[in-house]
Amino acid sequence: MTIFVTGGAGYIGSHTIVELLENGQQVVVLDNLSNSSKEALRRVEVITSKSVTFYQGDVLDPIILNKIFSEHDITSVIHFAGLKSVGESVVQPLRYYENNVTGTVVLCQAMAKANVKNLVFSSSATVYGDPASLPILESFPTDTTNPYGQSKLMVEHVLTDLAASDSSWNIAVLRYFNPVGAHASGTIGEDPNDIPNNLMPFIAQVAVGKRDKLNVFGSDYDTHDGTGVRDYIHVVDLAIGHLKALDKLATNPGLVTYNIGTGVGYSVLDMVKAFEKACGKSIAYQIVDRRPGDIAACYANPKKAKSELGWAAIHTIDDMAQSSWLWQSNNPNGYEG
Ligand code: NAD
Ligand code: UFG
């Protein structure tokens, strides 16, 4: 089986490819390297002792897509390619809609042309907005507050209409909660381009001495310690979820949607403590104002993925912190180092 992975040089893509290769699949990657490095794929090849076929190009380009589908016997596509910064999406909404929404439409057109109709799509828990209750079920109403979230929700609508129009499409929409951690080798991991927006890479950069201190955005939320609570999921668990989703597509389910989270919420300070334990240092932090747009708490009910995919997260918060630290301490400058 050959799996076509868009955005495969990125954080979640590279970890998923390791699992695919170790499971005996062939992998073809398309990535424009706008937020990643080819070095990640080289390291994936070292980890697995297997090779990846790489095309540098854009999902917005139908010519390269048609070429890939004609040159390989592709059975399924995992579509990671997308832009993911909430703040940037507010400033550059057209770029986000073009890349994330148009990019997916162009990809699906090329898939239809090649008669490849199995797709796993990277959606996000952001589509739930500020949920009325917790834990979050897939049936909860969707409601987004920024162009990034809108782009994910728009793609979900496009894919729903596509599956309704043609029953030969099989599509798994995976709504990721908060992916963190790194491969146990410490050789691949999250490598933000700039100042990290997300909590774990920021903590890791404080621990390694690249940043002075963490700003904790708010300590007056209605949570166990007042700081924001999220459902952090180890990226290797998330990666394995994609393999389970591919198995599901083989049963012709049509369009299916799953929460990919642990079901457990941890606060910002819980994550700081876990990281301190992993790295053996204290993490300097200060409490600052809430970050606009943040919600108090968000965590999944992941039972649907367990019962229908046979998937559940197994890594603990300590595994998340230890693997992040191994990656960060071995690669203080990410792939550039
Ligand atoms: P990432 O930025 O590390 O990976 C995305 C990859 O896609 C990068 O390698 C980038 O170069 C590539 N890419 C972007 N636009 C492209 C285009 N037009 N053509 C070809 N390649 C393109 O991000 P990630 O964390 O690995 O996220 C993967 C997917 O999961 C994204 O769609 C993201 O929105 C989604 N997601 C991520 C998170 C998270 O917190 N990391 C949470 C929920 C959903
Ligand atoms: N936080 C801090 N300081 C920081 C960064 C984050 O205190 O420097 C706090 C936030 O306020 C929040 C928690 O840490 O309480 C997690 O914040 P992240 O930015 O790591 O993650 P978010 O839950 O805000 O958003 C992430 C992705 C979104 C995605 C969402 C759900 O960035 O793209 O998870 O999947 F939509």
Short description:
With 337 residues, this protein is α/β, with parallel strands linked by helices. The protein has eleven helices and 14 strands. Helix content is 41%, strand content 18%.
Describe what you observe in this structure.
The structure is a single chain. The chain contains eleven helices and 14 strands. Helix content is 41%, strand content 18%. It has 337 residues and is of the alpha/beta class. The site of uridine-5'-diphosphate-4-deoxy-4-fluoro-alpha-D-galactose (UFG) has 21 residues, from α7 and β8.
Number of strands: 14
Order of helices and strands: EHEHEHEHHEHEEHEEEHEEHEEHH
Name every ligand kind in the structure: nicotinamide-adenine-dinucleotide, uridine-5'-diphosphate-4-deoxy-4-fluoro-alpha-D-galactose
Proportion in helices: 40-55%
The portion of residues forming beta strands comes to 15-25%
Class of secondary structure makeup: alpha/beta
Please give the count of helices.
11
Low-confidence stretches: none
Largest β sheet strand count, sense and barrel closure: 7 strands, parallel
Widest sheet, order of strands: 3-2-1-4-5-6-11
Computed over alpha carbons, the radius of gyration is 19 Å
* Mean pLDDT figure: 97
Indicate the overall shape. globular
Distance between the termini: 34 Å
